[in-house]
Amino acid sequence: MAWEHLRPGSSPVDWCEKNYLISSNIAEFVNTISNFLFILLPPILMCLFKDYGRFVTPGIHLVWTLLIIVGLSSMYFHATLSLLGQLLDELAILWVFMAAYSLFCPKRYYPKFCNKNRRVFSILMFVSAITATGLSLWKPIVNAFVLMAMGVPTMYMLYKELKRVRDQRVYRLGLRSTAVWLIAVFCWINDRMFCDVWSAISFPYLHGFWHVFIFIASYTVLVVYAYFYVENELPQRQPLLKYWPVDEFEFGIPFISIQNPGAHYKSDI
């Protein structure tokens, strides 16, 4: 029955945190509230990337919106541990990947048949997302592992692009993003694979830390790729990595400022 998928506990996935321990209404309390950055930070990023959306691509705001959906879906999943919540969470992440690839994947990594045309590549990503959405309904238990694996080519391309970048601020942000991503992966694997060990020391909350670290890694990687896109394809726009609220403090919120918004360009997007 379709209603069974809405039932709390209907998901085959259950994380290390003990269920209903803190609240009788929320299955995994820490895992639920630890999604707060997904809700709070994207609206700020939308404001900071206002000029980017106007003069480069409005698609950047779609990515920030999808991150909010990821946060809301993850909160629902961990609060209910329902199969519907799991699928909403995982599909939201999938569509963030596909939207980000469509917008910012450097053309040098396109399959040959795309002929370095972003429109063709975006269609490929859309078809792939539709196909993966269907497959995710078939074997929900493997979805999380597939999504984790999708981070590998993202970080490999980041490594290759950082070897090309000239702006040392961008280079340092890329390194910090990679380090935070590795910490996030460590938390995810340990919570998933070594729950007994962490429960034995009364700390079954690594998945909550995963939410915090993976958001930081995700949005900072997106900022770096957003810089690469302008630098590679619209260099006349003169992208500049800045930080808010204090530009000299590199551990603030990074964003891309467009120094020459009036430059004429022709894009295939």
Structure description:
The chain is mostly helical and 269 residues long. The protein has a single domain, classed as Up-down Bundle (Rhopdopsin 7-helix transmembrane proteins), CATH 1.20.1070. It has 10 helices and 2 strands, in the order ααααααααααββ. It has a two-stranded antiparallel sheet. A hairpin with an 8-residue loop joins strand 1 and strand 2 (253-258). The longest helix has 28 residues, at 206-233. It is globular and about 55 Å long. GO terms for molecular function: hydrolase activity, acting on carbon-nitrogen (but not peptide) bonds, in linear amides; metal ion binding.
Summarize the structure.
Zn(2+) binds at residues 78, 207, 211. With 269 residues, the protein is mostly helical. The chain has helices spanning 29-33, 36-48, 50-55, 59-80, 83-104, 118-136, 143-162, 168-193, 195-200, 206-233, and strands at residues 239-244, 253-258.
